[in-house]
Amino acid sequence: MINKKDKTTKIVFFGTSDRSLPILNSLKDNFNLILCVTKSDTVVGRKKITRETEVKKWGAENNIEVITVDSLKGQDLEHLLETFAKHKPDIGVVADFSFMIPKSVIDAFNGNIINIHFSLLPKYRGASPVQHAIMNGDEFTGVTYYLLNEKMDEGDILSQFEYKIDSEITSGELYSILFKLSAEKLPQTINNFLKGNITPVKQDHSKATYTISKTDPKHTFIRKEDALIDWSESVEKIHREIRAYNPWPIAWTYLEDLEKTDLLSEKIILKSSINKKLKVKIYSSNIKDGKLNINQLQVEGKNKTDWVSFVNGYCEIER
Asked: Does residue 33 contact residue 13 with C-beta atoms inside 8 Å?
């Protein structure tokens, strides 16, 4: 347990996730959080609405300096390095950041950058560990705190903890839980590291696995195309994918494929007036008697709806 707050240790946080608030609050409450680095504002939707990260919003609300970047190259990188040289931070903390951190930034912290990774490394290195744990039906996942180096999730481990995966949880729900738990345990990890009470442990690289995109094998990020349902897979695998791809990008299929499959608990026939080429997102499901029950879905261009309303509007039930 932490006996007292350490307001002398200067910390920089790197992150873009909207779930980062528990970690930010933990750092602010227990240390001298001097700076947050997050990605620049994005423009989203047909109305071209400017969206800023929750990290940026939190920084403004808590009077913490924030630097936004489009990359960690060129002028963005130069500005960061100049800022670090001015503030002389002691520790960097990274959680769900959008960019690979280069050696020059690691060197600015004398190698003292702790990354929070949401798997039990060396399993599931890459950008989507929670989604892959759910998709693969893992019983446990966890969080790893490790010292960042130039390679993807290969740094020496400081500590880890396990978490049992609920059989119906979505990746969004699981990420939220892991962010909260990691925030609670973070101060103790940082303090033990600073006091020399932790001996970093090298990973067994021979046991490493990666969160490779199904449709873009050069990357570990999930793509929208990855979430296209393959109806030749088992009901259990499809149900896990629906959970894994919620809240993004959401599992999807085409109306015509939904009609063709025999995996649904209710076989459907689409009305002749329906455009069967339309995409349909599937937000939630469950399994009953070996078949897939779809609970919430959304036809392209329409609002979300429940299964009964969808059937009433689009289908004739085969009885």
From this structure: yes
Distance CA 111, CA 90 (A): 10
Q: Both ends of the chain: CA-CA distance in Å?
A: 62
% of the chain exceeding 70 in pLDDT: 98
Rounded to whole angstroms, how far apart are CA atoms 193 and 239?
41
**Gap between the Cα atoms of 55 and 5, Å rounded:** 22
DSSP codes, 221-286: S--GGGGB--TTS-HHHHHHHHHHTTTTT-EEEEHHHHHH-S-BSS-EEE-TTS-TT-EEEEEEEE
Please name the residues in contact with 84: beta carbons below 8 A apart, sequence gap of 6 or more. 12, 105, 108, 109
Q: Are 91 and 109 in contact (CB under 8 A)?
A: yes
Say what the pTM is. 0.94
